[in-house]
Inverse folding.
């Protein structure tokens, strides 16, 4: 099962240890069923056949499933990670029609009841599907059917970002790190790091790769709550101009910068990255590319090309993929509208047509697994508060999103790329990457050593 | 002028200090002209206009040019890097028709006489052309005209490799490093390293990236003279199966392995990489991809996919480009038949369609500048021997190739990519690249630390 976390193992045991799964009598289902809005329609042999077929197609994940009569269809599953109830026939049919899109909605609205290890279940599905060539083709079709084309105009981009980031800073504060409030992959060079330490390590890693030196001018595209911008200003003594189209985030970022006495060093601009102007020593963007439509990559590269000084250096940090394809349809529609993680070759469309050379690519996928594991744990701890703040459906949706993402990074369905680049003719680039890995006190600026 | 080496500066001064360029009297041309097979045809105003136009189109490189009457056409050039004489009208016309292809041939056959800093001249041309958008289009057309499609069948591949590598090992021995006879980019983490040290450092760098551990099985595609294969076997205690289609190189490699008592650890196979079979912990290929046609990349990826164990890791080291396009036509025809350095996005066609994830990309272009500079210096030192071994024309061709390549890496026309990869679902990958940069004695095997 790959990376099963201690927490998940506990859940796993919790489900297995009930011992209700040994016979045909589905007691836990009955308990759950009592709380669930079950349909009164009669379950047919065809319904059961459909479930068995569906389970087979996705590689027989270790989950026990019952229908709206409370009777198990998959009692042969010996060590289930979870139990699942389909509360009505339409829910079953919708899942079969487009599992990627509908299953999430059905789970969130309570028409599919799920209890157990969500991340483990998702991981089993990913692995079950990827092992089958035929299913790959089926899956591609389904992905394509469930997916809408992404054309992020200025207004659409604003709307998409508003959907995800303007939910309320209070919500994100509950489960992101308390230090720099980073909603992107952390960096764990040492296993025992806390989320707070790992987010700071990520920011240092980015700054080192960029070889920041005092007085540098930095432009940041998509600055989130301004954590990186303020960090760079404080620890590397640079001047930052940071762009974001999320009102809530910019407000928060400005407030924090004032509190921390950094207002003269960091300017937060409520605007689209496409409106960046001026010349900078450094371009940086952490976790924005996921929101940029692929057909806009070349334009993003033009923006970089024109705002980066001759000897400037840049870094883009983004979720990516190995095999090109649309984002999971449900996540794209319900959580992250407009999201589309690129493959490395797709990312190159930013750089290559604009004569920008790639110096360094690092794939830190497993760091995102660890980050998501920590986020999920914190999310679970604050579940009750979040239900009160939002509602049950919202909590189910975000749990699914967090656990689904965790599974996707665990199995390599998603990757995390950090790409360092500069103008092709720039010869002031460090010969070795050694400097990135030197101890803090030795932080040099090899980009400027001739 | 970017990276002008001390050697080049000396040449530069040597040309400038003659003081023959201050007036209209082209004494150095006359001296040179005496030795050159000048045409008796009358030089016309149109001939002169053509030269001026040509020089203007390529960005006015600092070179003084005369035609077959010995009179300078470009006396306005104040600090020339070199002097050049067109010995007949056809040579001038051919240059204008397809400079990339014909200039090299004309220089080699002595119909264009060139004296001075060849690398500096090439670099000036690269920079002069790249600054002009219109020329880019013109250049693309010319490149396309001068270029032949590359379809490397098994037989063609053999023929191409024979052309370049079976010239005679004695020739390469004269100017490559004496330690491991590497005909690929060296690695200079420290400026003051010798070529020998830097080639060893390159091999270590590759082995570290691959996190070799004793007993690993390694397959090498395109093993050259077997330097890396023997190095891995000796220093990392691994078992290597190394493929190459160059008879001369395989003969040399086997002989050396026997001499060094490594025959039981290294098997050299005279065969195409497409015939690799078996399962290995490690796949490595240094400097072979340049000889693989782009439409064969996906097939190469299939070979890797099927020969790499589930938790195996791979590395490809290759010359690359930022902007896609064919190889310089002259080099492709006369020196390196079938050569086509890819962009990073083109390289991804090996990995992405085959579900291989990229962990790490490093661009060490400037290391190739330094390597080529050292090769050129050694080549110059052994010029007389090489003339005797081959002939004048061969020496001119190889000088042009080495200096042209040096210029191409200096200006970023060519890049050098090292890509580390593995199966997408492999979670036994090191979390940090720190281990690559640790001191020798601490060499760990983080791929295997769980």
């Amino acid at each position: 099962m790959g990376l099963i976390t201690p927490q998940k193992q506990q859940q796993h045991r919790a489900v297995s240890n009930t011992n209700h799964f040994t016979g045909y009598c589905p007691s836990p289902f009955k308990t759950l069923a009592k709380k669930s809005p079950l349909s009164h329609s009669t379950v047919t042999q065809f319904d059961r056949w459909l479930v068995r077929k569906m389970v087979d197609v996705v590689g027989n994940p270790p989950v026990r499933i019952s229908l709206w009569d409370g009777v198990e269809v998959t009692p042969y599953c010996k060590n289930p990670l979870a139990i699942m109830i389909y509360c009505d026939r339409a829910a079953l049919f919708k899942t079969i029609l487009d599992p990627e899109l509908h299953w999430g909605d059905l789970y969130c609205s309570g028409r599919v009841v799920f209890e157990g290890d969500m991340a483990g279940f998702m991981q089993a599905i990913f692995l079950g599907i990827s092992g089958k060539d035929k299913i790959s083709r089926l899956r591609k079709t389904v992905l394509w059917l469930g997916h809408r084309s992404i054309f992020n105009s200025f207004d659409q981009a604003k709307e998409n970002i508003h959907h995800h980031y303007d939910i309320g800073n209070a919500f994100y504060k509950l489960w992101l790190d308390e230090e720099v409030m980073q909603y992107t992959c952390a960096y764990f060079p040492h296993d025992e790091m806390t989320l707070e330490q790992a987010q700071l390590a990520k920011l240092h890693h980015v700054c080192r790769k960029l070889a920041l030196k005092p007085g540098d001018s930095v432009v940041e595209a998509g600055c989130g709550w301004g954590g990186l911008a303020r960090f760079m200003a404080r620890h590397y003594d640079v001047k930052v101009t940071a762009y974001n189209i999320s009102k809530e985030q910019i407000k928060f970022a400005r407030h924090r910068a004032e509190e921390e006495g950094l207002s003269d060093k960091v300017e937060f601009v409520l605007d689209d990255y496409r409106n960046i102007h001026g010349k900078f020593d450094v371009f940086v963007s952490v976790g924005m590319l996921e929101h940029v439509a692929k057909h806009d990559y070349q334009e993003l590269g033009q923006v970089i090309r024109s705002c980066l000084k001759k000897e400037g250096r840049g870094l883009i940090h983004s979720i990516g993929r190995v095999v090109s394809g649309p984002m999971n349809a449900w996540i794209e529609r319900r959580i992250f509208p407009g999201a589309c993680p690129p493959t490395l070759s797709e990312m190159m469309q930013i750089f290559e047509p604009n004569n920008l050379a790639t110096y360094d690519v690092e794939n830190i996928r497993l760091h995102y697994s660890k980050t998501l594991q920590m986020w999920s744990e914190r999310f679970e701890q604050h579940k009750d508060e979040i239900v009160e703040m939002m509602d049950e459906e919202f909590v189910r949706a975000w749990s699914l999103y967090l656990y689904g993402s965790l599974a996707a990074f665990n199995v390599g369905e998603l990757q995390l790329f950090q790409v360092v680049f500069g103008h092709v003719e720039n010869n002031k680039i460090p010969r070795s990457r050694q400097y990135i890995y030197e101890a803090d006190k030795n932080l040099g600026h090899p980009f400027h050593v001739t």
Q: What stands out?
A: Chain A touches chain B through 47 residues (CB under 8 Å). The beta strands of chain A are 63-66, 82-86, 112-116, 217-221, 239-244, 266-270, 280-286, 308-320, 356-363, 415-423.
